[in-house]
Specification:
The structure is a homodimer of 240-residue chains.
Chain A (H helix, E strand, L loop, with lengths): L22 E2 L2 H10 L2 E8 L2 E8 L1 E3 L2 E7 L3 H7 L3 E14 L7 E12 L1 E2 L3 H15 L12 H5 L1 E7 L2 E7 L17 E9 L3 E2 L11 H4 L24
Antiparallel strand pairs in A: 1-10, 2-3, 2-6, 4-5, 5-9, 6-7, 6-11, 7-10, 8-9
Chain lengths: 240, 240
C-alpha cells in the first residue's frame, strides 16, 4: 500500500507558474511531507465564504483522512461533496540574506485539490481513525482503548484523494545579489524543527503505568531522532 | 499602535458553533497568536477553485501584511479585492487520552475573514516590508540592506484587516470518560515547540562578521527563551 504510484498528473492549477525548480509531483515526495506534518489547513467555500481551518489528519495510501464530530460544519460541507484545498506546510528554517529583498524561508509544502467523500464502510472508518491516531503519535492506536460503536457513530470521517496537487520545497542558504556579497551583514540560515518536550503524565495516572517508547522517544516520521533528551530544561550532554 | 482596541465583533461566521469555551475574540489574544506564528495559510477562491497557500506575514496594529512578486497569482487576486480567509495555527502539544476517541491536540489558532487591499503608499509599503522581515526575525530590518526602488516596484504588498475573526485555544491534559480512568494506559501530553537550531552562516560570509544577538538567541515572540543552547547536536549542560 505504501509503494507510491506514478507521479501526480500536472494540471493547470498544479503547474508552478514561477520558480518551477521548487515544484514536485512525485508521490513519494508528497507522501513524505504529508507524513511528517501534524496539522493540515483545509480551505473550502460555502454560502459565499471561503474558510481555512486547521485539522489533524492521517494518510493511508493515496487517501487523506479527516475526522470530527458529526455536527462539524466543515466536515458536513466536505462530506456532501464540497470541493476543498488541503495544504500541509513544514517550516524548516529562516533564510537571512544580506538584502531585505532576498530574505526567505526554507519549507516543504503540499497543496492538494479535490472533493472528499464520507467514509461509510465501518472497516474503512475504523482503519482511518487508527491512521489518524497513529499519524499524530506513531504506534498509539494499538495501545489506546478502541472506539465503541457509539463513538464511531458520533464521529464523521471523510476521505480526500491525493490525486491533484503538488509539493514545493525550498532548501539552502540565501541567494544574494553579487554586489551585496561583500556587505558586512550576517547572512545564513536558522534551522527550525518542531521539537518534543518532556512528556507530562495525566493527573491521576497510576505510577505503575510506564511511559511508552513512542511517547518517550516521540518524533515526527522522517525527522531525525533528537540527539539530546527531549525537554526544554537544561540537560547534561555526553560530558555532563 | 500596539494597545489593542476592543474585542472583535462576533459575526455569524466567527461565533463558535461548538466548544464555545475555546473561542476568543479579544484583540490581545488574537494579536499574540499572530505575532508568535511564522506562516499563515491563505484561502481564496478564483475561477471556481478554492486554494490554500502558506505565506510569511507581518502585523502592524490591526493589519496583517503579505508580500510577494508582482506576478504572484494569489496576491493579484487578493489585491483586486478578492475575499480571503487567513489562518495561523500554533501546535503546542499532543494530548493522549486513554481512549482513542478523546485524543486531541493543544493548539492556538486564529481564523480571519476579510478583503485585502493593495498597499500603494510608499511609506506604508516600506513599513509593511520591514514588519514582515521583523516578524520572521525580530530586529532584522535595521541590519539588512534596505530595499531599492526597483525591488520595491517588483514587490506587491497587500494589507488584510484584522477585523472579523476569532481565536481558538485548547490547553491542558486529556479529558477521559470516568470509566476509562483506571485503565492501565499511559495518558498525558507531549509538549511541542518550534525550536531553533544552531545558525548556519552563509558560504563565503567573511569570518569578521559576527552572529547578531537576534540570530544567536532566536526565538518566536511570546515563546520562552531556550534553556539549552540551540542546536540539535549534543550539548554540555551546566555541569558539562
Amino acid at each position: 500500500m505504501d509503494e507510491p504510484g506514478p507521479a501526480l498528473e500536472v494540471t493547470t492549477r498544479t503547474s508552478l507558474r514561477r520558480k518551477r525548480e521548487r515544484g514536485h509531483h512525485d508521490r513519494a515526495v508528497i507522501h513524505a511531507i504529508l507524513d511528517e506534518g501534524l496539522v493540515c489547513h483545509v480551505g473550502f467555500s460555502a454560502e459565499g465564504t471561503t474558510t481555512v481551518l486547521p485539522f489533524a489528519y492521517g494518510r493511508l495510501g493515496d487517501t487523506l483522512y479527516l475526522h470530527g464530530a458529526a455536527a462539524n460544519h466543515m466536515l458536513r460541507v466536505l462530506a456532501d461533496g464540497g470541493a476543498a484545498s488541503i495544504t500541509v506546510t513544514l517550516v524548516d528554517g529562516i533564510v537571512l540574506a544580506r538584502s531585505a529583498f532576498h530574505h526567505s524561508m526554507n519549507y516543504r509544502s503540499v497543496v492538494l485539490f479535490g472533493t472528499a467523500h464520507r467514509v461509510e464502510d465501518p472497516d474503512e472508518k475504523r482503519r482511518a481513525l487508527d491512521a489518524i491516531v497513529d499519524h499524530v503519535t506513531p504506534g498509539r492506536s494499538a495501545d489506546a482503548r478502541p472506539p465503541t460503536t457509539n463513538e464511531m457513530r458520533s464521529t464523521t470521517v471523510i476521505g480526500f484523494p491525493i490525486e491533484e496537487g503538488s509539493a514545493k520545497i525550498r532548501t539552502g542558504g540565501p541567494i544574494d545579489d553579487d554586489e551585496d556579497l561583500d556587505l558586512a551583514i550576517w547572512a545564513g540560515q536558522i534551522p527550525l524543527v518542531l521539537a518534543p518536550g518532556r512528556p507530562v503524565p495525566d493527573e491521576g495516572l497510576a505510577s505503575s503505568v510506564s511511559v511508552p517508547d513512542y511517547v518517550a522517544g516521540y518524533r515526527r516520521p522522517g525527522s531525525p531522532p533528537a540527539a539530546v533528551p527531549p525537554g526544554r530544561e537544561p540537560v547534561a550532554g555526553p560530558g555532563g
